[in-house]
Each structure stands twice: as C-alpha cells, then as structure tokens.
Specification:
alpha/beta, five-stranded mixed sheet, 42% helix
C-alpha cells in the first residue's frame, strides 16, 4: 500500500472524525479508507484510532502521528510551491564558468550587476582556463552556463551569440627592435609567435583577411597559453608576437607597451557565446541570465 496515500487517509479521518466523510473527501470507498488505516497501524505496530459504532477518537500515538503527518504535508506543499515559483521567476543557484582573462576584465562586472538585479538568484562565478570539449561537462561539473569565445559544436548544448570579440596581432617595441617588423602575414613564419591554445581547431594556424583575400600562416614559438592575460605578459616581456583578444591588451596598445602589426590584414572577430545544456524547458534563472548578458554586452564596448 502506498505510504503517502495511507497517511493522507489517516489525516482526513482524524480531521473529519468520520470514515465516511473522509472517504467522500478523498473520492474513495469507506472500506478502502478503513483498509488504509488498518494497513498503517499494522506497519507502525501501534493503534492510532479508537473506534466505536458511534464515534472515533485518536489514541496518544495517533495524536503524535497526526502532528508528524501534518508537518510532512506542510513541507511537501512548501516544496511544491517553491518549485512552481521557479517556473515563473528566477531563483536558486546559478553557476557560471568564464575564461579567466575575459572574466577578470569584463564578466566579473556583469555578474555583479546581475546579482544586484536578481537578488533571489545565488550567483557563483568560476574563472578558469580549462577548455570544454564535451557537452556533458556541464552535468559533471554542476554548471548552468558557460561563456565562451569558441563553439562546442555539440547538439547537446544551446549556444546564444552575445556579440563579437575583436582579435589583434601585436608585439612589444623591444621585440620588434630585435627581430624586425613583419610586413605581411607570411613573415610570421620566421618570428617567435605566442600561441593562444584551445580557441581554434588548430591553434598554430593564424588566418587573415587582406586586400588579396584570405591568408593562412602556420606559426611557431616557445611560449603558448590558454590565457590571454598570460600571453599579454609574454608579449610585454618581448618573447614574441601575440594574437590575442583586443580587450586583453587595450591599455598596452594605448600606452605603447605593445604595438599592433599588419594593419592591412584583419583577423576575423570571434563570437562571444553563452552556452547551456539543451533541455525541453530552460530554467528561468538561465534564460533571464542569458537575456541579461545579451543586453549587458550590447551596451558596452567589450572589444
């Protein structure tokens, strides 16, 4: 016999003081309700109700068990109401993973603004340079959303384009004084290049659009990283030529600590994506966050 069904029958009988009334309220037969109570008493090993031909009353154990059952019912109702609210209003914990460099420069501010706007959502921001390669990384790591600058190319996730990230080729004046300035993309093959790994399918192939069309160059160098901020430091130290997001070196370019190269050849912008697991129903906290990010990015210069 279903435990919760027998508990519900007991609570109805105790409150109504009648098997017949309780049966009518539950839409069951009186005999079935009586059987529920009998099964419950057998399972618990105590008598819950004193029955006479004219009345019934709860035993001491019955009163104690009634309090327990009512408490359980209140907890169930509260949990169901809380779940119902999550379908229409964002709440709960939102765990977001963002690349460390982009997160430090931009996304930390975005998450702070979102947390201020949505006080019922508990936000956890994870800054990391661990590359995603599988859609089920979300489940294994307990993530709700990831912000990325490369696609997962997986049918198990949904990707929302938030905007574009501009990339730039740059080097320090010290490096250029020692190694010379490349005049065209092909010259990069003879330079020390700082490679940003886990961004493209082949990180050592740099692609450009120029006056005469697309050009691809295979580059090499002694330093590589999956962090744009680490590559920025390496470029400032004169280790080589870097291809990095403009946001990570914007101040260095303004101050002259780094210099842009190959002005006639453009590196294609890469999409900034919000990614979450594919599901029949997207949790409100995720949908609200994606919508917020789209507006937040559009209102700011993130390049």
């Amino acid at each position: 016999m279903d435990r919760f069904r027998t508990m519900e029958s007991f609570v109805r009988v105790a409150r109504a003081g009648s098997f017949t009334v309780a049966a009518n309220q539950l839409g069951l037969s009186r005999a079935l309700v009586s059987r529920h109570i009998g099964d419950l008493e057998t399972r618990l090993g105590v008598k819950l109700i004193n029955r006479t031909t004219r009345s019934l009353s709860l035993t001491e154990e019955g009163n104690a068990y009634l309090s327990f059952c009512e408490q359980v019912q209140r907890q169930i109702e509260a949990s169901e109401h809380a779940l119902a609210r999550t379908r229409v209003a964002p709440s709960g914990t939102l765990k977001v993973a963002v690349p460390k460099s982009f997160g430090s420069v931009h996304m930390a501010d975005a998450l702070v603004d979102f947390a201020r706007e949505q006080p019922h959502v508990r936000v956890t921001l994870i800054l990391e340079d661990v590359g995603f390669r599988r859609g089920y990384d979300f489940v294994e790591r307990g993530l709700d959303v990831a912000v990325r600058i490369s696609s997962l190319h997986s049918s198990s996730v949904v990707e929302h384009r938030l905007g574009d990230v501009e990339w730039v080729v740059c080097a320090s004046p010290d490096y250029l004084a020692r190694a010379g300035r490349p005049a065209r993309p092909a010259d990069l093959a003879d330079h020390a290049c700082l490679v940003h790994v886990h961004v493209a399918a082949n990180d050592r192939i740099w692609r450009f659009e120029g006056p005469r069309g697309a050009i691809s160059v295979k580059v090499n160098g002694a330093f590589a990283s999956n962090s744009a901020l680490a590559l920025r430091k390496a470029a400032r130290a004169g280790l080589g030529i870097a291809l990095v997001p403009r946001y990570s070196v914007a101040e260095d370019l303004t101050e002259g600590a780094l210099v842009t190269l190959l002005p006639r050849h453009r590196v294609a912008a890469r999409p900034l994506l919000a990614v979450h697991p594919r599901a029949a129903t997207v949790p409100p906290k995720v949908q609200v966050f994606v919508d917020f990010l789209r507006g937040w990015v559009a209102s700011r210069a993130i390049n």
